[in-house]
DNA sequence: GAAGGTCAAGCGCA
DNA sequence: CTGCGCTTGACCTT
């Protein structure tokens, strides 16, 4: 019975969903980028072995925790303990680009979140997309047009899914992961980006 | 070196 | 319940 409904889900599941249109491919969602077992294995390995850090930010007159854990890796120096090389190869097959970095977020539960934002374009290579792999439990993302009617798209990012956002779409849309009251197990997002150069050298100088 | 953008939690509102 | 817009301030980029 469950096997049958899963089969029906598979038959009717779209292979790709176009969420936003633009000249560079807009924002595109593949619900079944990898199979569930692979997604689960990646999730467990990353959660256990990635170098997660907890950040803080000032908020009014106190310091609060950033509501998620973060980790980042350069793709030319990947630790062998992580499945990032395998992930990159499979991302390249769906959304080829000259990726250089993988940035990861761990949303532990429904209280973790990211505010609406667009990715910083000054450090990203022109025309190169940002491609997001979702692992763990599904989590709702909001995508909102900046001008016009501020139309908002809500999409539940499923484990094993892939979301490709064009460089151009970062100028017209912002995105975020709102907090939720629902029971919400952990999710990891892995964002592959193409940085035009390493600009981490000349910060914090004098 | 001045100016502008970012993004955290909590509130009230629809 | 969910989304949205407002608030302050340290840190960042331009």
Question: Which SSEs are present, and which pair or pack?
Answer:
Layout (H helix, E strand, L loop, with lengths): L1 H11 L4 E4 L6 E4 L5 H14 L3 E7 L2 E13 L9 H11 L6 E7 L6 E4 L12 E7 L2 E7 L6 E6 L3 E5 L3 H4 E5 L9 E7 L13
Antiparallel strand pairs: 1-2, 2-10, 3-4, 4-5, 5-12, 6-11, 7-10, 7-12, 8-9, 8-11
The protein binds a DNA duplex (14 and 14 nucleotides) through strand 3, strand 4 and strand 6.
Task: Name some characteristics of this structure.
37% strand; 206 residues; Jelly Rolls; alpha+beta; disordered C terminus; four-stranded antiparallel sheet; DNA-binding; 4 helices; eight-stranded antiparallel sheet; 12 strands
Characterization of this structure:
This protein is α+β, with helices and mostly antiparallel strands. It has one domain (2-193): Alpha-ketoglutarate-dependent dioxygenase AlkB-like (Jelly Rolls, Sandwich), CATH 2.60.120. The chain contains 4 helices and 12 strands, in the order αββαββαββββββαββ. The strands form 2 sheets. An 8-stranded antiparallel sheet has the order 1-2-10-7-12-5-4-3. It has a 4-stranded antiparallel sheet with strand order 6-11-8-9. Strand 8 (139-145) and strand 9 (152-157) form a beta hairpin. The radius of gyration is 17 Å and the shape is globular. The model is unreliable at 199-206 (pLDDT under 50). The protein binds a DNA duplex (14 and 14 nucleotides) through strand 3, strand 4 and strand 6.
